[in-house]
Amino acid sequence: MVKKLHVHFMGIGGSALSGVALMAKKAGFKVSGCNLEEDTAYIGKVKKSGIEVFKGHDAKHLKGVDILAVSPAVVYLNENHPEYTKAKKLGILRIWDKFVGEYLLKDKESICITGTHGKSTTTSMAALLFENAGLDPSAIIGAKVRKWDNNYRVGKSKYFIIEADDFYDKFLSYKPSTIIVNNIEFDHPDFFRSEEHMIESYYKFVRLLQGTKNLILNQDSVGIKWLFNILEKDFLNSINLYGYTFSDSPTLKIDKSARIEVIKKTEDGTKFKVKSDELDLNNVYYLSIPGEYNIANATGVIILSKLYGIKNSDIQKTLLSFKGVGRRLELIGEKKGIKVYDDYAHHPTAIKVTLDALRQKYPKERIWAVVEPHSYSRTYALLKDYKGVFDEAHKVIIGPIFKARDKKTFGVTGISIVNESEHKDAVYKKDLRDIISVLSKESGRGDIILVMGAGKSYIWAREILNNL
Q: Which residues form the Mur ligase C-terminal domain (predicted)?
């Protein structure tokens, strides 16, 4: 009898890592894990599955372990931690994406969705479409898919659809047959030294294309044009290149291009048309979630579906029934006529387009934007990008910055964002108690409260709802 490999996941409470751990268990590995925080938005399902989860990190966890799969976030917090350093010394250490690439993606045709924004939503759309079309894919996503009540799916076909993250160069662990790049903007300043460094990583990733070699690009993204300009002509001639755009004169010109036309925006969603002679596309679609950025995400998936022979009727049905993913404009409840939404947005661009989408859904209501800024390094690097970000909100509350992986504060606080945003009704509050106090006194029936962040904000949203 072959011994089951024992994989221990360090940082098992993370969004994607939790799903990987559950997939590993289903694939026949013996699985355990540990996490600094006892409670996260994703750890409950891991414990429920019977996986043993330890609180905190300790070298003793490695007893009998064959592979330590670690989250880069853990490495950034303390790369000298005994559990990490011992695993490194024993030669059993893997960044979790390496584990996925080596074991879970073995003999699979990998379809990777990457970019700065919209990866989880786009990956979910793609996976649901393949599922609905009977292609039975496996998938791993950094957010919960509502239909599955999970962020992963184990399928029996050769297709594996995966959210490919640029942070820590994690996406370089995969061997993609098809890549969708949603957009590229500077992010993760705690890892990328500069925009050039970030583009270089995307360059390396795109160059990993193998097999069918499909590359689908958002032609309206300045960062993607920068990437495109450094890709060699010989490489571009060796792949199948496709693009999509809202414009007649896009930032990036691509021969096989799909033109998006927004027909009608309503409170319930968006009707749009995608046309391309080269891709034999001339169809109208209805997307049941708001926001122009989601139309762009959907169009990348429409092109993907065409390449894999999925019928247009399946595409139309899937987009019509798609209700989004967890923590992306997720309505968590209503109390006293006040609706509270939770969203993962933490980059200024993501915050702005999320507010734009919420305004589409609620054209006349009063919107409160409650933001937990994520990391001092990101706040410092992107501070100037906050100007005008909150224009669609009536009132803005900025809370304390979530430290994340930072070791210094760079001299910024939530007040820095308030000042830079130039919003006429933005305030800084030093803790959640003060935020709740303002909202319980000043919000009223018909108001919409949108809580955004990637740290503890999902807890904030629920506490705010409970205390209205």
A: 327-455
